[in-house]
Amino acid sequence: MERSPAARILLRLATAATLLFIYLPIALIVIYAFNTNRVPTWPPAGFTLEWFGKAAQSSEIRNSLTLSIQAATGATLVALVLGTLAAFAVHRFSFFGRETVSFLVILPIALPGIVTGIALATAFKTIGIEFGLLTIVVAHATFCVVTVYNNAIARLRRSSRSLEEASMDLGADTWQTFRHVTFPNLRTALLAGGLLAFALSFDEVIVTLLVAGPQQTLPLWIFNNYLRPNQAPVVNVVALLAIALSVIPVYLASRISSEAAGVPR
Amino acid sequence: MTSTPESARPAFSRRLAAALYKRPRLQLGLLLAPPLGALVVAYLGALLLLLINAFWRYDAFTGRVVTQPTLDNFVQIVTTSVFRDVALRTMLTAAAVTVADALIAFPIAYFMARVASRRTRNLLIVAVVLPLWSGYLVKVYAWRVMLLNGGFLDSVLAPIGLHGPGLSDVSAWLVFSYLWLPYMILPIYAGLERIPDSLLEASADLGAHAGSTFRRVILPLTLPAVVAGSIFTFSLTLGDYVTPSLVAGGTQFIGNIVFENIGVVGNTPLAAAYACVPILVMIVYLIAARRTGAFESL
Lengths: 265, 298
What we know:
The complex is a heterodimer. By secondary structure, chain A is mainly α. Chain A contains eleven helices and no strands. Residues 260-265 of chain A have low confidence and may be disordered. Chain B folds into two domains: 15-66, no CATH class; 77-297, MetI-like fold. Chain B has helices spanning 11-22, 24-53, 72-79, 81-115, 118-129, 136-147, 152-157, 169-194, 197-205, 210-238, 242-247, 254-265, 268-291; strands at residues 57-59, 64-66. The longest helix of chain B is centred in the first third of the chain and has 35 residues, at 81-115. The radius of gyration of chain B is 26 Å and the shape is globular. At the A-B interface, α1, α3, α4, α5 and α6 of A face α1, α2, α4, α5 and α6 of B.
């Protein structure tokens, strides 16, 4: 279809405006992290690195960063194991309820966040598990499985089984075939899925707030401190850190695997 | 085969591999047991427990949950005007967010799918995906800073005689629309990209001008993609209590009431019953969405 030059220009403008809309608030936080004024007025008063020093000295921020990394690592590892197993099962076998498996994997993320949060919180309370790192890891793992699963199954669907059959014909057993043929083929998909799982966990607030108890992940630290007027500049610095640490894995994942781009939350 | 070096390997793993190879059902069982076990026990179990809780009763005097089956919580939700109003407001906001996102997403998705060069397209995809899963709270917080009285929006709008919406329900709509926009752009982009050029050429050959081709060919073909995106905008809006608490200035949404009841008050049964509202809405929505073929666009 021929598009008139006017339509092209309008589309270009709309695209630019949308990107501006998406990135403006993020840019503002970056700017305010360097602002000398304690109050986020516009325009910013001046440039300073003072708040970065303050943030670095705070043991509370360090502890919540550590907890966030521990929780995200734990959830990612669990998600990698469970997501890969589920992807193999669904791809390699046809069985009764196969569609249900995909549905079950997506469910924790498709249902509204508060539902997942209070369901898990109630369950932990009933069983008597104390809220803390363990509950955060379990909660995050349930909704992180989908990222690994989606990436792994997309890769499995694209790859041919003849390579594995050739390996077996040449005398390799199941383990050798997995180690030398199947896994190398799957590696980047798992890496991308794992990176997305890490980012998803690192960024999560809605479920985490309900299952963390007195513990604070980095986003929870922001949530608990944004109202304190004296903390505002340090919150901006932590916000910058939080966004950097979740943007990097998502960026790497989208570079590694084109499949990662289409994965809905 | 005994002469191969492989025979030096522990025979057990080889025998195990052979045994598994002959029993595909066992393989399937071993593969499925951990993920299904975890999800069924941890997730479906938790959901079931939540549903059971909704039928129990909270005793305000003792502060304890009485485990006697009752429909009181559901009756309270249906008959109390606050609960009805909040549920209605949340659903209307979710609908308004969905409409806003679809309108904003279409031009950029169209540009990405059908106008941009390959290189620009890839850049744009990364630009849209990046904020998808990163800095959720930071973005809400950034909006709060922008919306505050005398903040960025007020300063920028002052020269043209306007002011920002402050912290209000309109702000909640604005910030929700902002947050979930990438979830709408990506499926619409994918939907537009799948339309073969030949269809558009055929439409033009048959005498349709650009406007009617858009209305009668492009729009119907991308509708499932829009519905797919709306599943996310809807579900995410229904399930969020953090965004309203930061930017809505005291206006309540379903999530706030559920969170307050489970966290501050300790009335888990009422929270559980009220959480059934978004669950029901999503189930109805998913069934309706399935009919449009949206699931193939996910």
